[in-house]
Amino acid sequence: MFRRRRSTPLVSVVVPAYDVAAYLPACLDSLLEQTLPELEVVVVDDGATDDSGAIADSYADRDPRVRVVHIENGGLGAARNEGIRHARGEYLGFCDADDLMPPRALERLLAGAREHDAPLVTGNVVRLEGERRARMGWMDRFHAEARTIAIDDFPELLGDVFAWNKLFRRDFWDRAGLAWPERIRYEDQPATTDAYLRAGRIAIVPEVVYQWRVRDDGSSITQQRATVADLTDRWTTKQMALASVEEYGAPGVTEVFRERVLPGDMGQYFVHIPDCSDDWWDLLVAGVREIWGPARSLTGSTLPPAQRLIGWLVEEDRRADAALVSSYARGLGGPLPRVTLSDGSVRVDVPGLDPATVVPEAMLLRDHEA
């Protein structure tokens, strides 16, 4: 535990707050209960129309570790950037106002960064679903053990795009010219991608350092994927991150990023195909073709079989068939049926979809899937 007192805080945590009055007290309580005492919490009231700003002010009145900045609404990225301008800590952290941090989170992150002299450290995350804390298997795998890496050693870590399970050494942040994109959703991916690529040394801690609240009121950004505005931002941020990876110039990192990281959330969009608008479908097709295209089809990605098939149908602009597979897979709630071919290979089967009209690689299972 870090107990020495100093005029400059070790860690500044930036908390953007926009219309989160119902959640902000619990968030701030979780930060002020951290076992790391040398802490500064910078709350950015992003033009909230509810009591978020007043709640933040009340915390600042009774706890000198809390500072509040009131600004006109500019969105999450702009609020984070404004908070950084006011932060005085040696390390920067971020917390969304509807989420929580376990009591030892910052202590553990800071210890990992200092022990390994790493300008960037990342820890594990659980989803907070009501009172339930749900593990995420892929994050457990990424954070299975304490270690220090370069991104070339483990490029899959680029898939841990979250802003808030990390600490960034402030001098590194400034020297690398890092910033959160503004006026766009999914701003985490371009910024964290740049950080991974420029950090050199990245510390990984296995402990859960963040509880990510999954809200069911429809207000979460990630619950708005069926809109053209959402999909536009998603393609833009993917392209920004991909451009950074390609500029980095390591073919192995680029391949993993394109085949394992970028496709990771496509299934969350494919479920909306049966009910999507014409404009949304056209945008989906254009984006898939631009990033993967015929030479790098999603059939070569690490998506599960049903999503690889849907991805190929999207590439081919076969909307009715993509909707058919999406609806069928959603109704099953499990793996697609399988058919064993004469050569012993196994493919998926979807009633109503003629396999003769589909390239084999879009339907065949891989050895570990059969």
Automatic annotation (TrEMBL):
Classification via CDD domains: Glyco_tranf_GTA_type (cd00761)
Gene Ontology molecular function, alphabetical: hexosyltransferase activity
Assigned keywords, A-Z: Transferase
Ranges where the Glycosyltransferase 2-like domain occurs: 12-171
Entries under InterPro entries matching the protein: Glyco_trans_2-like (IPR001173), Nucleotide-diphossugar_trans (IPR029044)
Transmembrane segments: none
Identification of the protein by name: Glycosyltransferase
